[in-house]
């Protein structure tokens, strides 16, 4: 009999739902940032018009990606009470399972590193923007 504290794949999905949720929020914020930037473009300038068109396309794609990540995160969270199914221990011990989890962890570390690096750069940009207001 399972207890409320027993780890299950459903609980794992729910716990990991924060990742697509937060990435989706980040992507949505990126789209919002591009939208705000677009308002500063002088559309009588050819280069600005091209930039506007590029941003317009990217904003639509970013918003769609953010929405899909939000939906996926909610689905993952909704599986919290998914009953634990029987697993083939031999298959769970196969090297590909460990390798896939290792890649997942490696990509999380790479994302963390990227966020740390770009956050410092972006904080400096924001400080410059605040100094000019």
Written account of the structure:
The protein has helices at residues 9-16, 18-38, 46-78, 89-92, 95-131. The chain has 133 residues and is mainly α. The chain is elongated. The protein has 2 domains: 7-85; 86-133.
Gist of the model:
The chain folds into two domains: 7-85; 86-133. Helices cover 77% and strands 0% of the residues.
Outline the secondary-structure elements.
Elements: H1 9-16, H2 18-38, H3 46-78, H4 89-92, H5 95-131
Helix pairs in contact: 1-3, 2-3
The domain count comes to: 2
Number of helices, where a helix is a run of at least 4 consecutive DSSP H or I residues: 5
Q: What distance separates the N and C termini?
A: 62 Å
Q: How many strands?
A: 0
Structural class: mainly alpha
Radius of gyration: 21 Å
How large is the share of residues in beta strands? under 5%
Spell out the key features of this protein.
elongated, 133 residues, mainly alpha, 5 helices
